[in-house]
Amino acid sequence: MTQVSKYPVSKEIYDTIYEVFVGTVSNLETKRRVARFFSEFLTPTERIMLVKRLAVGVLLAKGYNYRQVSRLLRVSTTTVGRYAFLLNYGDDYKDTVREILRNEKIEEFFLGTAEKIAGILSMAGSKGGSWRYLKEEIRNKRLKRPF
């Protein structure tokens, strides 16, 4: 569990530094820069905590129940309940989870289409087995997905 300082700052100072933090993160231009920033800025425990919070919503949206999510991610059912509430009644968290699922469906569609095309072309008997290899690679990528 992360530690919070026993010396709190005033609301005014908090609001200012929070705004600077959000502005800093939103100005990072690429996925790579964001990943590098968080890798340096957050401890491994803090990174795990944040990604689990997002994963709870994704798994709930996919139909997993509280107990399944709790066991899979090793979080309390209270934590699952908190993010289930946000998923049902929040705005930005719910929208973010929906966007993740939408992007996942788009990627799945394209991977499925590519796999079918590679399968058809591999049956056509091209020399060297390139299409067969491509079909197998696409299939393996689909199977490795964590969610």
TrEMBL record:
One GO MF term on file is: sequence-specific DNA binding
- Family annotation (Pfam families): Trp_repressor (PF01371)
- What Gene3D superfamilies does its record include? TrpR-like (1.10.1270.10)
- SUPFAM superfamilies per the record? TrpR-like
State the name under which the record lists this protein. Answer: TrpR like protein, YerC/YecD
Q: What is the lineage of its organism?
A: Bacteria, Candidatus Woeseibacteriota
